[in-house]
Amino acid sequence: MFVFFVLLSVIFVFMDDNATCHQTLAVQDCLDCEGIQRLVWSARSPELNPIENVWNALGRQFAGRNYPPTNKNTLFRALTEEWDKLPEQLLDNVVQSMVRRVEC
């Protein structure tokens, strides 16, 4: 994934959930080696991570489907369809909320 961003010369800040597995020396060395800036935040603070709101909205939409997926391919297709239906305003609001989330 990181190679993709580097090839596109995209500037970004990497955000993880600060789980202990993401704090290993191997992970830190990899991110440092690639010059990837990390967002520093409180340990185990999923409420700070805006993607949690998006997963919640996606889950609610997915649960409302009439026909549940029966295999991996239909699951992927169903999730992609529901993702495409998410309102752009929801995603914009979630991105804009990051300022408030990290102010403290």
In short:
The chain has 104 residues and is mainly alpha-helical. It is built from six helices and two strands. The two termini are 30 Å apart.
Distance between the amino and carboxyl termini: 30 Å
Instruction: Tell me the helix content.
Output: 40-55%
Number of beta-strand segments: 2
Residue-averaged pLDDT: 81
Radius of gyration: 17 Å
Shape annotation: extended
Strand fraction equals: under 5%
Q: Report the major sheet.
A: 2 strands, parallel
Please give the count of helices: 6
Question: What is the spatial order of strands in the main beta sheet?
Answer: 1-2
Quaternary class: single chain
Class by SSE composition: mainly alpha
Model regions low in confidence, pLDDT < 50 over at least 5 residues = none
Order of helices and strands: HEHEHHHH
Structure in words:
By secondary structure, the chain is mainly alpha-helical. It is built from six helices and two strands; from the N terminus they run αβαβαααα. It has helices at 2-7, 25-33, 51-63, 72-85, 88-96, 98-102, and strands at residues 13-14, 37-38. The chain is extended, with a radius of gyration of 17 Å. It starts with a helix and ends with a helix. The model has no long low-confidence stretch (mean pLDDT 81).
